[in-house]
Amino acid sequence: MIMLEIKNLHVSVEGKPILRGINLTVNAGELHAIMGPNGSGKTTLAQVIAGRDMYEVTNGEIIFDGKNLLNMTPEARALEGVFMSFQYPVVIPGVNITYFLKIAVNAMRKHKGLEELDAIDFLTFIKEKMRLVRMDESYLSRSVNDGFSGGEKKRNEILQMLVLEPRLSVLDETDSGLDIDAVRIVANGLNNFRSNERGFLVITHYQRILDYIDPDYVHVLKNGRIIKSGGKNLAMELEEKGYSWLEEEQPIEA
Amino acid sequence: MLNIVEQYADEFRNLDNGHFSKEPVAIQNIRISAMERFTELGFPNNKIEEWKNTNLGSLTKTLFKLPSGKQTQITSETIVPFSIEGTHRLVILNGKYLPELSNTDNLLTTLEIKNFSEAIIDNSSLLAPYLGKIADYTNHPFVALNTAFMDDGIFIHVPDGQVIENPIHLLYISSPTDENTVFHLRNMIIVGVNSEITIIEDYVGLDNKEYFTNVVTEMAARENGTIHHIKIQQESTRAHHISNLHVNQDNASSVSLDSFIVGSSITRNDISAILNGEGADCKMNGLVLAKDSQHIDNHTILDHAKPHGTSNELFKGIYTDKARGIFNGRIIVRKNAQKTDARQTNKNLLLSDSALVNSNPQLEIYADDVKCTHGSTTGQLEEEALFYLRTRGLDIRTAQALLLHGFADQILNKISNSAIKAYLESILSNWLSSIKT
Hints:
The complex is a heterodimer. By secondary structure, chain A is of the alpha/beta class. Chain A contains 9 helices and 12 strands. Chain A has a domain at 2-89 and 166-249: P-loop containing nucleotide triphosphate hydrolases (Rossmann fold), CATH 3.40.50. Chain B folds into 2 domains: 4-277, no CATH class; 382-437, no CATH class. By secondary structure, chain B is α/β, with parallel strands linked by helices. Chain B has helices spanning 4-16, 25-41, 116-122, 124-127, 141-149, 383-390, 396-412, 418-434, and strands spanning 88-93, 96-97, 112-115, 154-158, 168-174, 181-183, 186-191, 196-205, 211-221, 226-234, 240-249, 254-261, 266-275, 281-290, 295-304, 310-319, 324-333, 341-350, 356-365, 371-379. In chain B, the strands form 2 sheets. Chain B has a 10-stranded mixed β-sheet, covered by helices on one side. In chain B, strands 3, 4, 6, 7, 9, 11, 13, 15, 17 and 19 form a 10-stranded mixed β-sheet that branches. In chain B, 50% of the residues are buried. The interface between A and B is medium-sized, with 31 and 25 residues.
């Protein structure tokens, strides 16, 4: 079943084209890895799916569950089941993490027609999810990402994915800046969350995390286009030969 | 016709003719000399550096009259919304102390607390070293005007070695029967050696009248004494609030001055701490919530006069509509105040294009072995933080409110008493739900 369809997507920032005709289909149950060098447009793709308004979509569409995502506010997309893990999670001093997540979870539950969780039920729920990403309960009294290390911020992103239970998760370089143990924790959290109903776009610069999460497809993004798609082996080939190998093999059309 | 300054002088002469006769001569002389000083200084105008951004408008054009004596009727019901659990409350209504709604019973065994206008008669020798000396009337016209007319207020003296557990809530309610009334409130708080107290000065307007609060609070923290002072200003939307809060700190004393400002049409706060003993510590925090065409001017001074002092100042403001804010934060480190550590931060959020803040940190450092930092930022709500919250399913209004709450909570979290904090949280929540975003 088709979950996400990106058709001929063109995106500019301040008049400068970043994405230049992306086509991509993700079916429910699939995990797609998107790899590519710095500046290829990976983060732009993630942010456009989540609804950041500083990016201008000049052409194309993004269809999620048959609905046009581009017409929706970021919060409407979230409620429909789209989640993005930020490459650089935002630090919000003064906003308590538990309070924020409770509002978010209850907004989601309300949208699904479920009863809102009270304070005690929420704590039980969140503590269970925190164990999955090995976050200490002391985080519950902290402000959102305030004073967190790089690894703690990324684990906090995965925690949010686990509690919000999106159907489509877009992870923007969630593995970068992590040591190998932290990559394992993040990958483990992700693997436990995979199911036939969920789809994933895992954006990464390195092949490393793909050793743990087993992608169905690997796409290479360069200069705003997907220049090659393949299976898991493509990632290994890239690791061996680097991105320049593709440049030589498949020159980009103007 | 007499100009306004002359009219005030005229009023003073009429009163002086008998009204102050019960007071010690020394006090009467202070009044006279303060009135003389006021007539010399006159009202400030924009040509004076300290007042260049604040136009006092009708304050300097209208004669505000002393309270007529006709008292508004209020009951204990009226003050229910202003109760803070676990505090001793004293009520001053329209500039007059109201013993029937005040509770000092349990306090009198450990400290002295009474109406200021009685204290200047009964306790004049205790007051003498401080009165008019902590709040200098020679260079501030409103301190001079207050000192000439000073009336009711609260006097508190904590003897040496007393820790007062429950905070004292001074509730100043204004709901004058006549238009254009002025309240020259005067407070004095003396905290003895090794003593500790928490005071809340809370200014409340019950209706939409135009009136003028001109308050002066003098505080002294003796050696190793501790004062937690919390000022809450929730005056009527047409009120003028001019406030002077000054503290003198002896060796190893510890003072916190927290200001919460939501009310009035014009506010001018002069807040100062003189760290006049070695190893004194002062924490000065402020939160301004301003909307419509409110004008809120905060002038703060942290004056390090002796070595090893520490001060930490954090003033924040949220301004919307056409509100205007001024933050003028001076840090003085005098020549022998070596090893001083002074930090100052001012952060402002502007929620509309017409809101405006002037932030002006001033460092005057005459010692060479000191640590001094300051920083000031003024901007809008962070677009990226809003986006982050929205991607988690929060609608834009909820996301904005959460960010604003978080911004303000950094100040509220400085308050350790949970009942006071809850009282402030409800003022903050009401304000946040009252603004257009």
